[in-house]
Amino acid sequence: MEELFLSRNFKIENGHTLPVYESGGGYQRLKKALNMDSATIIDEVKKSNLRGRGGAGFPTGVKWGFMPKESELPKYLTVNADEGEPGTFKDRYIMELDPHLLIEGCIITAWTLGLRYGYIYVRGELQFAIRRLEAAIKEAYAKGYLGQKIQGKDFDFDLYVHPSGGAYICGEETGMIEGLEGKPGQPRMKPPFPAVVGAFNAPTLVNNVETIAAIPWIIERGGEWWASMGIEKNGGPKLYGLSGHIKKPGVYEAPSGVSVRELLEDYGGGMLDGSDLKGYIPGGSSCRVMLPDTLDALMGFESMREAGSSLGTGCITFMDHTTCMVRIAGRLAHFYHHESCGQCTPCREGSGWATKVLDQIENGNGRMEDLDLLLDICDNIEGNTICALGDSISIPVRSYVELFTQEFEDHIRRKGCPFPAWSLRSSASTRAEAVAGAE
Amino acid sequence: MALAFSEESEAKFNELVSRYPNTRAALLPALFLAQEEFGWISVEVMDYLAERLELPPSQVLTTATFYTMYNKQPVGKCHVQVCTTLSCAFRGGYELLERFEDRLGIKRGESTPDGNWTLTEVECLASCGSAPMFQLTDSKGNMEYFEDLDSEEKFETVVKELESRLPNLPDPRDMH
Amino acid sequence: MPKVTINGTEIEVDKGKSILRAAAEAGYDVPHFCYHPALSAPANCRMCLVEIEGVPKLQPGCYSQINDGMVVHTESERVVKARKAVLEFILLNHPVDCPICDQAGECKLQDYYIDYDAQESRVRTEKQNKVKAYPIGPEVVYDGERCILCTRCIRFCQEVTQTDELTIVERGDRAEIRAFPGRELDNNYSMCTVDICPVGALTARDFRFKCRVWLLTSTDSVCTGCSNGCNIHLDHFRNEVQRYRPRYNPEVNDYWMCDEGRLSYKSVHTDRQTEPKVNGATVNWHALAQAVADKLGKVEDPSQIALVISPQATCEDIFLAKRFGEETLGGVQFYLGGKLSGDSDEFLIKADKNPNTRGIEAVFGGTDSLKSFDDLLADMESGAISVLYMSGTDTPCDAETRERFVGLLDGLKLFLHQSPHAGEFADKAHIILPSCTHAEKDGTFINFDGVAQPIYQAFAGYGRSIPDWQIFLRLARAMKKPFDYTFLTQIQEEMFAASQAPEPEPEPEPEAGDDESSAPPPAE
């Protein structure tokens, strides 16, 4: 993209500081917003086709519309910065390199919806992001962008950073609210939804970092402009994190609806030399794995669903021909098993079971009936849990079994894994051997 | 000896509590603060926080054990946490972990007897574009990412850098 | 009222009612582990998933509320499959050690497995190891491997006792229940966690490995530990009480009882005197009655006779004691016996440690006509009392006074001791009249609140002990002034004719979904 928005300050020196941010037009959008009324702003956000960038893709303007206008308790903004889905690493860049964009977005959101307090719920591991955010919040307070009577308006808003303690499940919105309240991040039953009963029993808006970071730009240039940089129902530029067996891993900004091929070839520099694409995960490890023949799919929520997976966070992991899909499935299952909060039965027990069965196959102790068993375990978890973590294990595991059945059967027949071990194959010196070994 | 925050931590603690409508909400940041001050989250530390936040101790226990970043056992001065989730595994995460195992003479999940190092395998740290990587948490509570460690040379440079920090770090076992 | 259709049955239910309760009203049991009618519904076990038409995912019946026009299926193919799946998941890491598990026979997991799963195991992977026989409290033992993490015990401590001892540590399938290190599950009601644990994860130290539950017979009774009168299941085997369990009664004790009361069953079997004796010689009841008639008949001034009435006795016993004193002997002095007051709390435990003080009040029309135990001592010391007819071994006084009382027994002309227990009195009594405990007789207790509650006989009297009321019948007959009763019901009819309803309160219908707390063991 020629002009950058979400990543504009990423490469600018001291882009994370207030003076640099302001010199690029920062906080002018807040001033503009403070002269707009709530309904107009919500309307612009609706027009923008901005969809939740945490992975679920719920239309942001619609979500904002769910927030009650009146409330006896102060209303809360909670920004979901518990970025933990394997393969996803975009929000971290905003917080570290352009914290004021997020903060300005928070203030505009609070103004629009009458929110009194905001918490940016950052995963505790991202201490650098936390420090940058806290410094930026301090700067914003000093300039009267936060606190009481903001910019002379009858508008009070306090914003804090809340560090999580290390739990993927706090990326789930109600798990996050539990974490904010100092409890284990065990997701709540819905209804009630956070917009009605959220943090501290009050109406609470939960939005992802990237979603909120888009708000200042929508205010500046309008919802229609934002929508124009995308495809139907998917508006605006978006951050894509590319990783795996590619030449130039990293975070890139491109319009919504860009094709996977473009991202791989034009942004990611293509596959590593000697690597053939075997599959890719389009939006974090809970999405179904995709085959190379879907490379022309567009990165939109509907288009990716039609192509057989989901957009998720839009952070793509590319895997080459040396990748063992049984091992990947097992490694992912291990992750979700480790992160299952343990609250409800199917996810707590099923995640561990699937992991063990997959490990058995990988280690040469599999049986043909294990494949049906795996699919059964997935069926029995999916849809039967309190939150979506159960689905996050069953959806991908099923996809590996279904799309790479042959590979699973080979493992079982040959009583072992034909692919080189992970630890040996990645460095430059051993890479050639590894590739050779796989062929 | 009864635990107590230092004057500086006390001020931070009070500021933390002021951020929330109830004391329980301050528990996660307070646990980090306590870990920084007392080295690790022992039963005594949990008890102390329960008292300070006026919570039943069981509530502190459940939260402290649910989250992975609170060390319920003392760790080394340098706590090395190597990510081995997908993108890191593709780019040498396991190899990095093994390099540490060889270099430190311990297996993942273990600490060196001198109390300098603890090596842990962890899940995705949102650094997939700069894999392989590890996170360092030192006994003063500082966290740092070391990324793109795809060669022996880079690994050695980082380890030497960390070794030079060791003399200035307190041993968490002695911190309370 | 909203109308819902459950498995084709249309019923009207109160707004806000959960599907699980509504289904129970319609006659369908929805299986569940984590849901308990007295606790909040976390919907974590997923056993009660039901199908609601128009809702894509299955929903937990315990949490989802009914809406007007809702069409619910609790036995559809999808529902049954999900149930089976949940059971398979639960059993994945469960040790399946039923043969050595105390819960076996009254285990929901066992029951539901038979009902809904009953398939061969597909598990080929290793099970998670967790803590075994962990002393989580002085009265309760925890088995982490059997635990299904339903959190009933945690919620009990949070919501009922509000003592917050228990919580979950760690997460995922590594999670276990724990108290804070150095503290324990130690509250007055800790053993209720054993009742509500749907599996064998929490067991009572007292009952562990004592008796298979299918050997137990259960009799409805009332705890005699204090005047609250908690309703209990008196579970017994071979003429021995094995345990008490609280019996649901929303008017009195809901689903709960205190630990002290629960363990008070032990007194039934300790220090029993079982043979009628006259001056140390064992005799039969006939000979004993003759001897008593003879001796009491010789007392010239009945006001020299003290008759101690115990609030540990049933209304029927007290009624007969009163008539025996007033009519058979005529003009005796009545004194109030029983236990000394003790600790109380805001919940179930009452300071009055006698189950039937209100029974005495009912029979005597208040307690004015009874003199105090202190008066008894004074009257014995002054010689105003020379004959003592003592009922029970309890004395409402401190240890020092009791010692003084025991000392004064030597000065009596005649000492009759009517009690299930020997106490320090057996050696001093001229006449021993062995009576039954509450486990061995029918009767009525009136609790502190005025609720008359029946107790039922669980097994025959120990040795040759008989109920107090029968003793009085025998003595009256021997004294040629027989009462006109043969059966207890006749006494009850007469007793309650003028005052309260003679019919003891029927047991209230348990709330929907309550099936563990009030269900008798399968043996019954």
Q: Would you summarize the structure shown here?
A:
Chain A is α/β, with parallel strands linked by helices. Chain A has helices at 18-23, 28-34, 38-47, 60-65, 91-97, 99-113, 127-142, 173-180, 209-221, 223-228, 260-267, 301-306, 325-339, 345-362, 369-381, 389-403, 405-414, 422-425, 428-438, and strands at residues 76-81, 117-122, 158-163, 204-208, 237-244, 250-255, 277-281, 316-320. In chain A, strand 5 (237-244) and strand 6 form a beta hairpin.
What is the strand tally of chain A? 8
SS content category of chain B: alpha+beta
Radius of gyration of chain B (CA) equals 17 Å
- Across the major sheet of chain B, the strand order is 2-1-3-4
Q: Which CATH first-tier class of the largest domain in chain B would you pick? A: Alpha Beta
What is the total tally of β strands of chain B?
Answer: 4
Radius of gyration over C-alpha positions of chain A, nearest whole angstrom: 22 Å
Helix content of chain A: 40-55%
What is the share of helical residues of chain B?
A: 40-55%
The CATH architecture category of the largest domain in chain B equals: 3-Layer(aba) Sandwich
Strand content of chain A: 5-15%
Q: Please report the two chains with the greatest interface, counting residues with C-beta closer than 8 angstroms to the partner's C-beta.
A: A-B, 59 and 51 residues
**Largest sheet geometry of chain B:** 4 strands, mixed
CATH superfamily of the largest domain in chain B: Glutaredoxin
CATH architecture of the largest domain in chain A: 3-Layer(aba) Sandwich
Q: Report the uncertain regions of chain A.
A: 425-439
- How are the strands of the largest sheet of chain A arranged? 3-2-1-4
